[in-house]
Amino acid sequence: MDLIRVGDKVISLSRIANVTEQILLARSQGMSQQDVAKKFAVDRSFVSRLETLGELRKGRSIAVIGFPIANPDEVRALCQELGVELCWVMTNQERWEYAQSRNGIELVNEIMDLANRFRQFDVVILLASNARVRLMAALLDSRTVIPLVLGETPLSTDVVVDIAALKRTILTVIDSPENKK
To answer: Which residues contact 167 (CB under 8 A, 6 or more apart)?
Structure first.
């Protein structure tokens, strides 16, 4: 139900959600808390409290890339739970469909665009075969890459990711000394 009554007030839950989203989007685009507060006619402390209320974690930006993954939904759910900004995982079938749905030049351009996008992250966790991990690490700048090798190249069947091991890896990145500064 969208409307609720609190005392003599009728409150729209969707309006609250919409304005909250607009406030946080403005903050994510670089506006100061004070400027956002002024724009939406709220106290600056309210903007701060919204950020605190929704905060999943602080620190370094993290991406997870992986293929061929047998349990991509579990990997995505873990990434969501831990606040990983980008999770791009595919089954073997999805990987082939992705590659075959593009012509050669489109695929090369997209791979270069994706590599550039992934380079923006402080840490990229790679889930792939040994040769693919080496190749992707070279494309991304190996000092930001944490490889989790799924097996020997070529991998033609989906591999189950050890969710507990992936969780430990992500938590290690989150709890690293760089985040304590």
So the answer is: 78, 82
- Alpha-carbon distance 7 to 5, whole Å? 6
Long-range contacts of 50-54 (CB under 8 A, 24+ apart): 50/20, 50/23, 50/24, 51/24, 51/27, 54/24
- Assigned token pair, 138: 């070279």
Q: Distance between CA 142 and CA 25 in Å, rounded?
A: 32
Section 155-174 average pLDDT: 94
B/e letters for 74-87, b = 16+ CB within 10 Å, e = fewer, are ebbebbeebebeeb
Instruction: Read off the pTM.
Output: 0.67
CA distance 54 to 36: 17
Instruction: Identify any residues that bridge with 5 across adjacent strands, giving them in sequence order.
Output: 10
Angle between helices 33-40 and 44-54 (to 10 degrees): 110
Return the closest-CA partner of residue 137 out of 115, 160, 114.
Answer: 115
Which pLDDT does position 58 carry in this prediction? 61
Rounded Cα–Cα distance for residues 166 and 65 (Å): 12
Torsion, CA 170, CA 172, CA 178, CA 180, rounded to 10: 110
Alpha-carbon gap, residue 26 to 173, rounded angstroms: 27
Taking only the tens place, the pLDDT of each residue in 123-136 is 999 999 999 999 88
